[in-house]
Amino acid sequence: MMTSTPFRRSKATIGMAAVALVGLSACGGSSSDGDGGSGDSAGGDIDCSVYEEFGDLDGKEVSIYTSIVAPEDTPHKESYKPFEDCTGVKVTYEGSKEFEAQLQVRVKGGTAPDLAIIPQPGLLKTMVETGKVKGAPEQVEANVDEFFGEDWKTYGSVDDTFYAAPLGANVKSFVWYSPAAFEEKGYEVPQTWSEMMDLSKKIAEDTSGEEGVKPWCAGIGSGDATGWPATDWMEDVMLRTAGPDAYDQWVEHEIKFNDQQVVDALGEVGKILKDPAMVNGGLGDVRTIATTEFQQAGLPIMDGMCYMHRQASFYAANWVEAGAEVGEDGDVWAFYLPAQEAEGDKPVLGGGEFVAAFDDRPEVQAFQTYLSSDVWANEKAKVTEGGWVSANTGLDVENLKSPVDQLAAETLQDENAVFRFDGSDMMPGVVGAGSFWKEMTNWIATDKDDKAVLDAIEKSWPSN
């Protein structure tokens, strides 16, 4: 969800539910044949020799600062134990709900942490501009080159200098549905955008005599952040209709917000969210989308009042809370929001975190190397009950306990995946968390005209 400017919460922070906690067995220190931090982490054993090049680290300390607080912080702390056992380094973890504001204060005041988990590229750029962020060491860059796609490395770079390795990730390009309902009606999971639209029309026809039943259900309510789910819709569709290059230009305002490509994308979103034949199953008319809290928006699927709901992987927590079993054979499951074509590039909208360093002591670089490795990704997966995934291709999907996390990892690791960060999270705050949210809400609540909506957002874009 939102992660754009330094003083606002990320959208992932808004939507992410707390994860369950489990323990991690201690590192045994046995070696494997990995290098650069990689190796067989099965059973908690990792290749400790990887860290010998950083010298004698026993008794050293490394501090890490993050927005991830209790209870979600426990799996992070547990995942550091193999590194601590191997090297003798003590990792000091500090989480804060005021992280984004306080990080800047601390950096400018000369009390920066050794490392910070930064939740979006915009804040990373802001931190780099202070002159305090250290370039990533060669070991970290080697790991990122090996285990992450070029798109992820780009998001960790500023002005062509690589600073921060990716850490966790989330996937937004999912559609939730009931496998049983699809099977009963003979509906197939669509493989292209046109197939999805044809399926939507088919469901609308089949349910035309059932009061309140619609193909789609949606809700964009989120308190002061109302509107963000609609911006996610827009971003996902923009990626698919205009393509990743135009998407990047749109986010950077190299094309205007009311450019024809953006107009076309909003029109495509409107074929679902503004069509009374398509929404809002079990909830009311189109305008109820604006007043329905996003946490409740997909639940009509459980009552057979709705067949599809577009929302991120983290929405799994809302199903569990509602008593639904999540899985391919469960009460609810998800499919990839289709691209224009079944073959070729698969646009994936999402978010993620990046590890930036404010010190280049050997122990700091060693810990950076660990966090950028496939070893850490697998250790983190083992100690997390659910609600976490990484785009690290060295992550063994089987180590993830949640089926949705496994689906998200498979989506990110797909060789055809073209990942793009949440657009509103990278736009200036006055737009991304301001006019974009507000005008998309007006588009639904007051049936504001497409052109008027986009013109208003374009007008709000800062001149410098």
Automatic annotation (TrEMBL):
Keyword presence, Transport: yes
Signal peptide: 1-28
Gene3D superfamilies xrefs: Periplasmic binding protein-like II
Record carries keyword ATP-binding: no
Family annotation (InterPro entries): Bact_solute-bd_prot1
Keywords (A to Z) from UniProt: Signal, Transport
PANTHER family xrefs: ARABINOSE-BINDING PROTEIN-RELATED, OSMOPROTECTIVE COMPOUNDS-BINDING PROTEIN GGTB
Family: Belongs to the bacterial solute-binding protein 1 family.
Protein name: Carbohydrate ABC transporter substrate-binding protein (CUT1 family)
Protein source organism: Marihabitans asiaticum
